[in-house]
Amino acid sequence: MPRTPRERARAQTVADIVRLGREHLASHGAAALSLRAVARDLGVVSSAVYRYVANRDELLTLLLVDAYDELGDAVDMAVEAVPPRDHAGRFKALGRAVRDWALREPARYGLLFGSPVPGYQAPAGRTTTSGTRVVYSLIGILEAAYRAGGLMTAAPTAVVPSALSPDLETIRNELGLAVPEGLLANGALVWTSLFGTVSFEVFGQYGADTFSARDELFEHHLAVLAKLVGLEA
Amino acid sequence: MPRTPRERARAQTVADIVRLGREHLASHGAAALSLRAVARDLGVVSSAVYRYVANRDELLTLLLVDAYDELGDAVDMAVEAVPPRDHAGRFKALGRAVRDWALREPARYGLLFGSPVPGYQAPAGRTTTSGTRVVYSLIGILEAAYRAGGLMTAAPTAVVPSALSPDLETIRNELGLAVPEGLLANGALVWTSLFGTVSFEVFGQYGADTFSARDELFEHHLAVLAKLVGLEA
DNA sequence: CCTTGTCAAGAGCGGTGCTCTCATTTGTTG
DNA sequence: CAACAAATGAGAGCACCGCTCTTGACAAGG
């Protein structure tokens, strides 16, 4: 894509800035991300960075997309490693991939799913595509299982409030889904529950010594969530 | 408690600092909490604040306990407004109280349940008592329902991994619980799922226009979670 | 060659947490 | 009541932050 040598050098510098920013983010957290520190690591004076990145918020946006995509790649890879017919297996692979990535990259996970950075509003246009990959993957698994007739009906369903139906219908129409709205509502709960469980572990909400068998705790939760959408009996 | 006039004045000043800190926290977020700004509002030079609060982290700890207690009070009040026999009603009241408080105080909720503040480690000794009030309340509701024989057995249970049993047994013994470990494991999932759902809404993880009927979405989730521990049929 | 555009450097502004010194206030005690 | 000691507030200062502006060096293209 970059044609002139200038453009090539420029793209390389931006890539370096993102790489260094990612390292700072991973080791010190989002709030501690400092353009000056990135500039120091880049071997350049602080003001020079502003030639490549408008401000701290834009660097944050770049890192946000970067993290969303890395998580999305990890999830896609894990899901596709499971046979398409094994819907429950694919769901659990998705969950494990999210948890593994989150535990591996706690600060970046926190940027994506933790408290919003004060004063920073992610520009929707540049983040939605990457930010919706995981939930679309989850919906894809559910939809495939439903179309294949592989969903149990023993899942505990609650009556969908009438005011909620239009929202669910919109989603079904926009994505061309066959899954009924009740299942979609349960899917939303599974979605938020998955990230709730992972966040509790990553953010240290469990006490230090409440749960020592955290892998098994997560596996149990994953199994219950799978039942919740009928992926398992 | 404070006897001498000096101690009274000192306690009052500390209370003022916490109050101003809470206001800054609520309006600008945790990362933007500034001792200098608090000092300005207090009408005092910045260094004077250090006479009352060791550093920024200690103020953060005070605000953490303050927020945990306010949330705990809100939950207790909501739960106790429901007849003790109505276990499902108490559970839903707890959930709604958490969500209402979180939506009312998003920045303080973020401090409690969002990404940890970089470089800040909450001193366990000063925060656990207040920080465990909600989960203890949830466990209390479950335990009361179980002892009263008011739990349905139709809840979807997954087999508890053997490595997880010791953790659950420890909890059962320390709290003197009668609920079986399988139910306790589901309770843990309900706990994290509740906060996962609330966090998604408070932190803006749902797209801006994905769900418009958010009250109803939450009510639906609450109903499914109630079924998950057998509080409802 | 020489203009034009790109870039790094440096100074500077206002903000932050935190420490230190110094003067002053204030409560207690002889 | 006066003297003393503790508590307190003010101020300067250090190192850091995001960000802006000006200046001078440099390379690409006409």
List unreliable stretches of 5+ residues of chain A: none
By DSSP, the count of extended strands of chain A is 0
Most extensive interface? A-B, 64 and 64 residues
If you average the pLDDT of chain A, what whole number results?
A: 93
> Measured on Cα atoms, how large is the radius of gyration of chain A?
21 Å
Distance linking N and C termini of chain A: 51 Å
Describe the largest sheet of chain A.
none
Helix/strand order of chain A: HHHHHHHHHHH
Helix content percent band of chain A: 55-70%
Molecular structure report:
The structure is a homodimer of 233-residue chains. By secondary structure, the first copy, chain A, is mainly α. Helix content of chain A is 68%, strand content 0%. Chain A has eleven helices and no strands. In chain A, helix 4 (56-80) packs antiparallel against helix 5. The model of chain A has no long low-confidence stretch (mean pLDDT 93). Chains A and B meet through helix 6, helix 9, helix 10 and helix 11 of A and helix 6, helix 9, helix 10 and helix 11 of B. The structure holds a DNA duplex (30 and 30 nucleotides).
